[in-house]
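Subject: two folds for Thursday's group meeting

Dear M.,

Sorry for the delay on this. The cluster queue was jammed most of the week, so I only got both jobs back this morning. I'm pasting them in the order they finished. Each block is the input sequence followed by the predicted structure tokens. Could you check whether the formatting survives your parser before we put anything on slides? The first protein is the one we discussed after the seminar.
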Amino acid sequence: MSELLDQINQPGDIKQIDPKDYKALAWEIRRFMVRKVSRTGGHLASNLGVVELTMAIHLCCDFPHDQVIWDVGHQCYTHKILTGRKEGFDHLRQYGGMSGFPKRAESDCDVMDTGHSSTSISAALGLAKARDIKGEDHKIFAVIGDGALSGGMAYEALNNAARLKSNLIIVLNDNQMSISKNVGGMSNYLGKIRTNTNYTELKQDVENALEKMPHVGNRLTEKIRGVKDLVKRIFIPGMLFEDMGLTYIGPIDGHNIGQMVSAFHSAANMKEAVIVHVSTQKGKGYRPAEQDPSAFHGVGPFSIKDGTIRQNTEKILSYTDVFRETMLQLAEEDLRIAAVSAAMPSGTGLSAMAERYPERFFDVGIAEEHAVTFAAGMAIGEMKPVVALYSTFLQRAYDQILHDVCISGLPVVLAVDRAGLVGSDGETHQGIFDIAFLSQMPGMVLMAPKNAWELQQMLRFAVNAGCPVAVRYPRGKACQAFESYKQPIALGKSEWISRGREIALLAVGSMVEIAEEVCDNLRQQGYEPSLVNVRFVKPMDEEMLHMLPENHRLIVTLEEGVITGGFGQSVATWYEAQGHQAVQIYPVALPDQFIEHGPVETLREKYGISADRVTARILEQMED
């Protein structure tokens, strides 16, 4: 390990570093992160961009007494290094290892478990109010990116922060990127501030001149204070933040530690909420990440020499690939089909749609709530909108789906990518709640494909269903099995894979492949199980459910979602309402808890939904 980094072993150690060595320390931190992430994978570009910013915050703060909330949280690596967690990077995002996000259980220097965007200002404002009520005196920082400012929650918080009569420092980390390139009015507004130096140059010239005028300088400063706002409005259009009642400092160089330390100290002396606008470069210090920050946002293991991602050379068709190609086909066939993304056109497979049909593609920024209600408006206007979101981010639009789509029965299609366990990003990103919250919404149709072909057919069905439809599919490789099972999609109808007796397995989406393996295991034990591909979580196939008790005494439901409110509980409730007493319902699902980070197969095994664990659980039930 490097000489300077050897001196960083606990919070506050950075203050023992000679200021002339800050630049060298920043270089060492970047080299350390590149080396570690090249082996484990992780969020690299965002972390490389905030090295000096994080160092400046630590130079101004005493952790854990002072507090910082990182919006989204994937840019916290330098913070972890400076708070004594260097050793954890050997197992970053690995099962049982250190999280790639802030984690209260890891360190008292992590204030809040974060993973979604636009939340930091609200949380920091709450911390500030709690501090004031208790009569405490410590610094509170909220670090939020310009991409996160496209989320409406940030403005709700800013509106309230303007009334704060005590200190709160909001650092706007402006790198012109979210995951993909920023879009929208706020991006344009910040661009004007970044490029307009007239005001800041004039302000500096005036201050320099006043400092040279003995006795009258201070009085003149007071005289021109009232003119300052007018000057700002002349040179910087809008002055949005100050018009909201917030003090604004910047923009300043987010890679100049001295400038930031000075700005943070000035901001800390104010009895109000202050926005410090810093400009940073995403991926700074590692050329491949500088050239393609989107590719190095969340990256797997890679070659340090040239940035080449280490991966299986075998071409893997993912469910996202299938969605991408199907959307292009559908859009070619029907001019009313439009696609909506919330700042993730690449991640959801919609970049191709944006290129081929730009007039029918809409990236609304990190604004999932707006994305859904925007789609509702398009549906009223007789378009066929498809909103593509990761399952974990779909949660943010719960009310909009319920209130703006389902109450009116609008034909909005939700393409729910990364449904189920997703692995290394952990609790904040596992897509395990969508079955529970979508299936409780009246009028919602919820589907899950068993393989690539079925995803194509379900999307084709969904855009013509004339009602709200959600299609959930997992991250990663698309299943190519079950090629001989191509029964047409019909509303609320499941598909029989095999017919047997005694034990019936009802599998949802990704669990069909696992259920087939379970059936093979059970056959080796002398059983003849039935396997049903559920297809429709809602509406359920009641005709199929009526048939099962005739020759099955154990009905096992399998889903990669939480058990509470899931498909299994819905089946059990249905049978109870029907008065069936002879059949036993055994739900196989994830426990009612948040699931940590780790490889999907490892997590499936741990939580009892792998083929071997499911087989063992079923055999136990049959022995009772």
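Second protein, same layout:
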Amino acid sequence: MGISFNAQERVFRLETPGSAYLIALIDEAGFLAHAYYGRSIPDDNMQYLTRSLSDQPFREMGRQLDYLNNLPMEYPCRGTGDFREACLAVETDEGYRTANLTYVSHKIYGGKPPLEGLPATCGGAEDCETLELLCEDKALGLHVTLLYTAFTRLDAITRSARIENAGTSGLSLTAALSACLDMEDQGFDLITLHGGWGCERMLCREALRWGEQGVRSTRGISSHQENPFIALAQHTATQDQGQVYAMNFVYSGNFLAQVESSHEGQLRAVMGIAPEEFRWYLSPGGAFQTPEAVLVYSHEGLGAMTRTFHDLYRKHLVRGPWRDRPRPSLVNNWEATYFDFDTEKLLDIARTAAKSGVEMLVLDDGWFGGRKDDHSSLGDWVVNEEKLPGSLKRLADEVNALGMKLGLWMEPEMVSPDSDLYRAHPDYALQIPSRDPILSRWQLVLDFSRKEVRDCVYDQLHKVLSSANIEYVKWDMNRELSDVWSSALPAGRQGELRHRYVLGVYELQERLLRDFPGLLLENCASGGSRFDPGMLYYSPQIWTSDNMDVVERLRIQEGTAMVYPLSTISAHVPACPSHTNGRTTPFETRGQVALPGCFGYELDLTKLTEEELSMIPGQLEDYKKYGPVFHDGDYYRLASYRENGEYDAFMSVTKDKGLAVVNYVQVLSRVPRKPPVLHLRGLDEGRRYRFTETGEERSGAAWMYGGLLLPRMMGDFHGKLFVLEEVRP
């Protein structure tokens, strides 16, 4: 495993346990060409894969343009004969728009360097190796270092690029993507995660067609509508078999993830910051670092791809003291009270929660400034003592006295026009002079590209969090970016603003974690519009969606868990009827659907029936007992309500394969209907497992190939947890 360079073949080889990635150095031209990515090949001599890449025959025929437009490039540039999507596009001060990179040198070393100011996966020399390929455009004086890291225990490779102006004249980057993958079409479907508010990350799979397909966001956030993830899966690929190539972007702003397929059966997949609205000026000596793209390969279907992403993100992206710790159960007051609360109402909820064993109370929107509804006060992060006499300290002390923790909702990136902050500093908001700004939820976006704006907000947050024992923060962001203009940037550099905004968010969250190292941070963005790997670098869990209806959550959580670990998925038991669609579902089933994620309640516990209250201790006991299996174990998708229209099922198996938990939900009851048989996955064929529901004991092979015959359940929206324990001698 690791990275090597064969000087005779002039081939770089990146190896993971089950995959190989080959880069060819074209001898005369000095181009870096993509030679192979796929299942590991044990052969030492791979030169046969690179022979066809030489441009000598095309030079002799005077057809270099044809050659460049078909060469599988590692980092293609715009303007020199490659008319497909480019990773790098520049415009010089003189006005020409051509770049042409050739190889200069390389370095191979153990471990992985951090990316300055950006989230990225991490690992030591025992986990991964890194390749740096230095390329240059001599005419421009432009240096580009391509960074590759191959993980030695996972089938994952990461890519990014550092672009430096080593010349004497300025130039502008008009595209700076992070990764390109040129390969032949092997009969692929394109898999994406799309949706909208309340229906985030809906799994979509369709045949790859000719031309350009993909997803992008120009909303300033990764968005509800698209997620920075694409996968190319063979038509025949299932959960268990077939080749899959996946890409995920470690970034929380505008992005492009695109596949371009040609009539010659070739395709190009690219990923990076969306070129629209992007322009970055590099003065002599200036540099730009692209965010990281994660590449995952599987020859064992979508399930193996999913488990690789889960393991990579759990151990090499999520950081801090909460990475491996069980997350506290909580109750959030939002759907319980909305803005209508005071200290006594919150304590009533907390007392009921404490009696049931809930570990944390989270105070949501409405605790600050003159906030009575969503029309005012964002930006004024001062406790409203009319609602909370004695400030947050009194509330925290009384909640702590009940044996519970206190958490707090904040929306630091926003400002209300009706706020003291905006009245004092209207220029702190993103808006265009002489135009009425576009409002969303009665709020504007603060210009987080400016240090003085970040400092102003952070000073307030720091004061609030230092005033009481607050152990959790839910960081929200409730609108997309519009009227994107900053008074602090000259006209020619406004194209930098969207990226600088994202860097500002990262800087502030890093600062928060540094100053409050024990804090549990949860990111949120109007539900799940910023559920991406960039946010996971700062917060080990993310609010998945504002839609907590059981049926909708099955589809949302299926799409989310295809890439992101269950330990990152915040899931709460909602009020009923559902506040998003009015559906009525059993309290027990609502708990079961929320159980595999970071568990909590989003309702007024004081209004529950005695029967419902009596279920809470059991739900919390299941969370403590089986949460670690879901959060740390291997995930297997067994059935999809999205596909079959009747029921949903998945399971998690501990790494030692000693315990498995199946989460089954019957959404609709059919008549007549034979109970389904679930063919389990991930067990050890040779071991014996006891089905705790009935006491039956069978081999792992029998449970997987013969299957688990489910008990018959009457009615809609019912679920069950099924547990299989290894029978030990």
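Two things I noticed about the second structure. The chain has a mean pLDDT of 95. The chain is about 20% helix and 30% strand.

Cheers,
T.
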